[in-house]
Amino acid sequence: MNKYPTIKTTLPSNKEFKTIVSVGEHQLILDEPLGSGGNNKGPTPTQTAIAALGACVAMTIKIYLDHKDWKFESIDCDLDFKIEKIEDPSVLSEEEQKYVVRGQLRRINNTITMKADFDENQINRIKIIAGKCPVHKLMEGSVLIEDEVKLI
After folding, report:
1. Contact yes or no for 31/44 (Cβ under 8 A)
2. 18 pLDDT higher than 80
3. Does residue 63 register a pLDDT over 90?
4. At 3, is the pLDDT very low, low, confident or very high (cuts 50, 70, 90)?
5. Please, where in the chain does CATH 3.30.300.20 lie?
6. In Å, what is the CA distance from 94 to each residue of 100, 139, 147?
7. 84: number of Cβ within 10 Å
8. CA angle, corner 147, sides to 54 and 142, nearest 5?
9. How many C-beta atoms surround the C-beta of residue 139 within 10 A?
10. Would you say 86 and 101 are in contact if contact means Cβ atoms under 8 Å apart?
């Protein structure tokens, strides 16, 4: 049995972009902002994908922390998505150059802020675990994702 239910999207034949997304027994509304022809009734598809990354990273880290019995109070992911126009790819790092497509670099900076008391080795391990979330892996190759872990 597939653990991922079929996802259905429905966009009525009218002038709106409001789209109903059905995922199993759950429903979401996606839309475009007013300035892009939508009615701003929900997040955009891109915003939803980035939100899914943040949620997945937090859940993956939680699974790891629970397994290790490392105590924490909270995990917050602040994600900043940018599309950068690249005139001269040679000024970029080798890693960044891999993500330049048609003169654009898509980048997500993910700041993972945790209420916890971890040492440097634990922080480094958590950063590695963040990259193992399924959505992170799904996006690899199309967008440069840079994870940073901070403690408060």
Report:
1. yes
2. yes
3. yes
4. confident
5. 45-151
6. 11, 19, 17
7. 14
8. 75
9. 19
10. no
Q: Using the predicted structure, report yes or no on whether residue 130 has a pLDDT greater than 80.
A: yes
* DSSP string of the chain, one letter each residue: --SSPPEEEE--SSS---EEEEETTEEEEE---GGGTS--SS--HHHHHHHHHHHHHHHHHHHHHHHHT--EEEEEEEEEEEEEE-S-GGGS-HHHHTTEETTEEEEEEEEEEEEE---HHHHHHHHHHHTTSHHHHHHTTTSEEEEEEEE-
Q: Tell me the pLDDT band of 1, cut-offs 50, 70 and 90.
A: low
The DSSP string of 88-110 is -GGGS-HHHHTTEETTEEEEEEE
pTM beyond 0.90? yes
Question: What average pLDDT does the chain have?
Answer: 96
The domain 45-151 is placed in CATH, from the list 3.30.300.20, 3.40.720.10, 3.90.1140.10, 3.90.550.10, at 3.30.300.20
Per-residue pLDDT averaged across 6-33, rounded? Answer: 94
